[in-house]
Amino acid sequence: MIVPSIDLMNGSTVQLVGGKEHALDAGPPGPIAARFGRVGEVAVIDLDAALSRGSNADLIKPLLRGTRCRVGGGIRSVEAALGWLDAGAHKVILGTMAKPELLRQLPRERVIAALDARDGEIVVEGWTQGTGQRVEDQMHALRDLVSGFLVTFVEREGRLGGTALDRVASLVEAAGPARVTIAGGVTTAAELAALDRLGADAQVGMALYTGRLDLAEAFCAPLTSDRPDGLFPTVVCDVHGVALGLAYSSVESVRASIERGRGVYWSRKRGLWEKGATSGAHQTLLRIDTDCDRDALRFIVDQHADGFCHLDSFTCFGPDRGLPALARTLAARVADAPAGSYTRRLLDDPALLRAKLLEEAGELADATASEHVVAEVADVVYFALVALARAGRPLSDVEAELDHRALKVQRRKGDAKPGALPSQGST
User: Fold this and answer.
1) Rounded to an integer, what distance in angstroms lies between the CA atom of residue 70 and that of residue 42?
2) What pLDDT was estimated at residue 424?
3) Which entry of 62, 269, 312, 323 is 20 to 30 Å from 202 by CA?
4) Is the pTM of this model over 0.70?
5) 189 in any annotated domain
6) Under a CB-based contact definition with an 8 Å cutoff, are residues 101 and 52 in contact?
7) Cβ contact 112:118 at 8 Å
8) Does one domain contain both 147 and 293?
9) Type and span of the H or E element at 236
10) Is residue 125 part of a domain?
């Protein structure tokens, strides 16, 4: 699959030829990351940090909240790597510091080792100095300590001349269980498809920025369809992962989805179809995933208005249920809860809501029987969701916060605050 690249220098997104010649400036990274992130992980490389002449950390950290990023450039210590992982990077990319003694102190599944090669030889010092080491040999030494390798063909980087497909099979074999990502010269969708068949991904920058490679075509290149019309079955899910219904996609509809940031599909009757364009039940596209066999898609969308189904049901499989349904109901009640209803009282009386939160949390803490625990958790969740609705925030924001916290590697002790425990409060 494709891994779009954002290279940062002097606070802007740039592309270099051969790592030196400044070829183009694409501006602030935020809008680019939002677009690229719709098709998967994005590689964000801090060139200033890599060259030890500054940092673009203040630009990168906000990207980590909304985009799945693998961050590289100037990460030369365990502390720096852990700092990026705790900040929300899905993976960190380590270059010359990807050595066994350092890698053993990091979570393997979150680390990629970058190997820059010219004609099969690893080069360092800004690609100016050969090491005499073969890429495959270094892979054998590190493959049990990392989740992936980023191999850059230096002689092809930024030149739009195609990549070295003939070298990839041996690299994938040498990498063992680690996933290989190839950078340098990848220019066409056909190359991306070939790399995927070989078991490798492609990190692409210049071809995307210059328009030589279309992002939708690149994303769809590895896909296959067994349908006569060539369409890809598409499971449409809401932000909580609940299946809303089944649709179909084409390269054209995927392109429209990426560019518009909306749920756009291919109707077998009407052709290109943007969900909600006329009904108002539109979708904000969050991301598109492929399945393991590359023959189906999943759209993760923020579904607006009353739902997905033309029968006025939230899903094509019936009404919504569970916590997401309750959260949406309470959010609607902020505006239309009847006067005198309990929800209206809670929304209008912060003191009452606070009292109920404390009361129910205490009852949950004291509950011992399993049925009692379940009932008290339900009470606490209800009042917590009222507080969330009152603040004007959706349940998906809470899930995103929890997912963000799950990326942290370094944890706090989690002790109770002073005076919170009975023994601490007594004299």
Assistant:
1) 6
2) 54
3) 62
4) yes
5) yes
6) no
7) no
8) no
9) strand 232-237
10) yes
pLDDT digits (tens, 9 = 90+) for 236-254: 999 999 999 999 999 999 9
Tell me the three state secondary structure of residue 266.
strand
- Bridge partners (DSSP) listed for residue 143: none
Cβ pair 182, 2 in contact under 8 A? no
Q: Give pLDDT tens digits for 17-39.
A: 877 788 899 999 999 999 999 99
Q: What letter does residue 262 receive in the DSSP assignment?
A: B
- Please choose, from the candidates 69, 146, 82, the residue with its C-alpha nearest in 3D space to the C-alpha of residue 108: 146
pLDDT of 48-94, one tens digit each?
A: 999 899 999 999 999 999 999 999 999 999 999 999 999 999 999 99
Which residue type is seen at 325?
A
CB 44 within 8 A of CB 55: no
Residues 97 and 138: beta-carbon distance below 8 Å: no
CA max distance for the chain: 79
Helix (H) or strand (E) holding 399: helix 395-406
| CA pseudo-torsion sign 214, 220, 225, 229 | negative
Beta bridge partners of 153: 117
Tokens of 11: 């606070």
C-alpha span between 235 and 122 (Å, rounded): 43
Q: Is residue 83 part of a domain?
A: yes
- Domain limits at 254? 232-303
Distance from C-alpha of 301 to C-alpha of 303, rounded to nearest angstrom: 6
